[in-house]
Amino acid sequence: MASLLGSGVFASRNQEPENLLVRAREGDECSRNALIRKFTPFVLRVTSQTSGRYVRLGSDDEASIALIAFNEAITSYQEEKGVSFLSFAETVIRRRLIDYFRKQTRSQKEIPLSAFDYESEDDTGEEGNNRMEIRQATAAYMAESEANDRRNEILYYNKLLQEYGIRFSELVEVAPKHEDARRRAIQVARQVAETPAYREYLRLKGSLPLKELERDVDVSRKTLERQRKYIIAVAIIFMEKLDHLKEYIDKE
């Protein structure tokens, strides 16, 4: 019976948790509630590890979801499969939390990277498969979340461009063809974004302060006018801190 909760969890003299588990599985609600109370610290520890942050009972949804998952584990645990109850419960908790993370909106960007740290001395058998499934689910969620972030960022960027009379579809056409010219245009755009007066001018008038820029940068006014749309488009990326799009600019 001691193996139900994993070796070394309790001294052999104290069999109460094991007895609670047996009685809870036989339908004793008092024993079930007592077992949940006794293992609440364990549940919160697993939840914090999976979420990558400290989780409080009563104030964080993750804690409630984890306790429900622990209760589910009591009901569905099968001793004959050779997995300790606590290992099984940990797997169920992490699965339910992963499902919860999948449903979250962009506001929850600190997606639990710590879920990848879910390690075991033995990653074989059903328990190992469960752990691998959790890792794969986390990786899939993170990839999907990043893809959604990129799509939403592009939609937002397209809306911003329209305010300046620029179409997203024409950016390739208006971009300088030569690498050196693109780099100079990006430098000008960065200066516009980082100079309060230039930034305010662009936002208020929707155009570049060509006269002032001509004095400050090593680019002719004629070139500034020809590259106007591209410079504005890149300046918007810097001004709005559009990190995914900025990755492409940084590669130049």
Automatic annotation (TrEMBL):
Domain RNA polymerase sigma-70 region, residue spans: 35-106
Gene3D superfamilies: 1.10.1740.10
Record's subcellular location: Cytoplasm
SUPFAM superfamilies: Sigma2 domain of RNA polymerase sigma factors
Molecular function GO labels: DNA binding; sigma factor activity
Keyword hit for NAD: no
Regulation: Negatively regulated by the anti-sigma-I factor RsgI.
Gene: sigI
Keywords: Cytoplasm, DNA-binding, Sigma factor, Stress response, Transcription, Transcription regulation
Source organism, top-level taxon: Bacteria
Motif extent (Polymerase core binding): 61-74
Function: Sigma factors are initiation factors that promote the attachment of RNA polymerase to specific initiation sites and are then released.
GO cellular component: cytoplasm
Record note on quaternary structure: Interacts with RsgI.
Protein name: RNA polymerase sigma factor SigI
DNA-binding annotation, residue ranges on this chain: 210-229
Keyword Metal-binding applies: no
InterPro entries, alphabetized: RNA_pol_sigma-70_dom, RNA_pol_sigma-I, RNA_pol_sigma70_r2, RNA_pol_sigma_r2
Entry coiled-coil feature ranges: none
Family designation: Belongs to the sigma-70 factor family. SigI subfamily.
GO biological process, one term: DNA-templated transcription initiation
